[in-house]
């Protein structure tokens, strides 16, 4: 098999390969924990934990596609989650008002990072590094270095509520129908524009795999308490960000900026404005993830989000986002987030030493970037 053939096959079937890898990871941890890893309760907790990383990955994938990076997201998550806890516990604000304030603060912090990068000309790596330190310092001052708890029952519901099993089943059927419609529309669009049409067996395989995954997840969730609310929020974000990436002018501009920023600028597109909004969305995702993380833990911790940026960046690279920009998908980043969450959860259940967990995740991040270099090296 030639190198070019390997690159083509790997690019076409990367998500399928990742799903197989997840199945193997789950099988290994299930074996080592005597089935505890794949119990309905643990998988429900796993998906709830993964939702925080997944929400951040939705924003980060746009940042990386545009050729930038944001290292401040872990500290910003901690700051905004701590702010939510302080507003709820210390000041007793109504939940809707607290949510609006935290989301607004996240958007403003994102715009600040975007302004410093796009308009002030500071490299995003430095802006993120400075934000990582500054935001962590602010949350330590805001909380006094102590955990703020307990949050109100209403806020707890953001991270701990479930969708009833009946509605979960209806949602699963709806998502499967939507998958079938999207696959059919893709084939019809390719035929209408006289482009090569995907082979029928590949389309059928996508539908079958999607159906099997949905059926397995829905039945597992329903056998416990239902679909966790954070997972529902993540599904909505998957749809919204995928639509932005594929169906909007703004989404096409994000890919254009990452592919060739100078050519994009010369074509009349305001590159700085595009980057400003990308970082604004990233800040908004940090706020939402911070709210859900605080609600899930029922407390605001000054150490929340430590090293979260590494998990999120690794998730994006594992899911196929190119470190050089211009390529990547939201659903790929979420599959990568599931890989990272599965490893975290499984190694914690096995009581693996923290240093080994760091080594494993570091090796996986390096491997993901190596695969990106190996499969895209001669394509640009």
Give a structural overview.
The protein has about 375 residues and is mostly helical. It is built from 16 helices and two strands. Helix 2 (about 15-30) packs parallel to helix 15 (about 330-350), helix 3 packs antiparallel against helix 13 and helix 4 runs antiparallel to helix 5 (about 95-120). The longest helix is centred in the middle third of the chain and has 28 residues, at about 165-190. The radius of gyration is 21 Å and the shape is globular. This is Xylose transport system permease protein XylH. Pfam families: BPD_transp_2.
In short:
The chain is an all-alpha fold. The protein has helices spanning 3-12, 14-32, 40-65, 73-90, 95-118, 124-143, 153-160, 165-192, 200-222, 229-247, 249-259, 261-266, 271-297, 308-318, 330-349, 354-376; strands at residues 162-163, 227-228. It contains 16 helices and two strands.
Share of residues in strands: under 5%
CATH architecture term: Orthogonal Bundle
Provide the residue-averaged pLDDT: 85
Shape: globular
Give me the CATH fold name. Answer: ABC transporter involved in vitamin B12 uptake, BtuC
How many distinct helices?
16
CATH class: Mainly Alpha
Strand order of the largest sheet: 1-2
Question: What profile does the largest beta sheet have?
Answer: 2 strands, antiparallel
Q: What structural class is derived from the secondary structure elements?
A: mainly alpha
Strand/helix succession: HHHHHHHEHHEHHHHHHH
Query: Considering DSSP H and I runs of 4 or more, what fraction of the residues is helical?
Result: over 70%
Radius of gyration using CA atoms only = 21 Å
**Unreliably modeled segments:** none
Number of strands: 2
Into how many domains do the coordinates divide? 1
First CA to last CA: what distance? Answer: 22 Å
């Amino acid at each position: 098999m030639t190198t070019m053939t390997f690159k083509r096959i790997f690019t076409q079937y990367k998500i399928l390969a990742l799903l197989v890898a997840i199945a193997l990871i789950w099988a290994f941890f299930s074996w080592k924990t005597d089935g505890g890893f794949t119990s309905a309760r643990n998988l429900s907790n796993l998906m709830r934990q993964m939702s925080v990383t997944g929400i951040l990955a939705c924003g980060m994938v746009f940042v990386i596609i545009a050729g930038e990076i944001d290292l401040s997201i872990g500290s910003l998550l901690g700051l905004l989650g701590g702010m939510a806890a302080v507003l709820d516990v210390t000041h007793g604000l109504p939940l809707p008002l607290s949510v609006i304030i935290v989301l607004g603060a996240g958007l403003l912090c994102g715009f600040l990072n975007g302004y410093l990068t796009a308009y002030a000309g500071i490299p995003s790596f430095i802006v993120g590094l400075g934000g990582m330190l500054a935001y962590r310092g602010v949350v330590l001052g805001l909380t006094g270095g102590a955990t703020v708890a307990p949050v109100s029952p209403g806020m707890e519901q953001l991270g701990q509520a479930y969708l009833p099993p009946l509605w979960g089943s209806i949602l699963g059927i709806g998502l499967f129908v939507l998958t079938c419609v999207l696959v059919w529309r893709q084939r019809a669009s390719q035929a209408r524009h006289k482009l090569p049409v995907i082979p029928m067996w590949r389309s059928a395989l996508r539908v079958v795999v999607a159906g099997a995954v949905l059926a397995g997840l829905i039945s597992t969730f329903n056998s416990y308490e239902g679909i966790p609310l954070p997972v529902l929020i993540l599904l909505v974000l998957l749809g919204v960000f995928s639509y932005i990436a594929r169906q909007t002018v703004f989404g096409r501009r994000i890919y254009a900026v990452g592919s060739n920023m100078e050519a994009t600028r010369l074509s009349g597109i305001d590159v700085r404005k595009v980057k400003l909004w990308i970082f604004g969305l990233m800040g908004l995702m940090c706020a939402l993830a911070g709210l859900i993380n605080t609600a899930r833990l029922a407390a605001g911790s000054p150490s929340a989000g430590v090293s979260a940026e590494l998990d999120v960046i690794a998730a994006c690279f594992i899911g196929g986002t190119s470190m050089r920009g211009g390529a990547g998908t939201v659903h790929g980043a979420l599959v990568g987030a599931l890989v990272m969450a599965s490893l975290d959860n499984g190694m914690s259940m096995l009581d693996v030493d923290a240093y080994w967990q760091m080594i494993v995740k570091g090796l996986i991040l390096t491997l993901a970037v190596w695969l990106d270099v190996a499969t895209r090296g001669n394509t640009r």
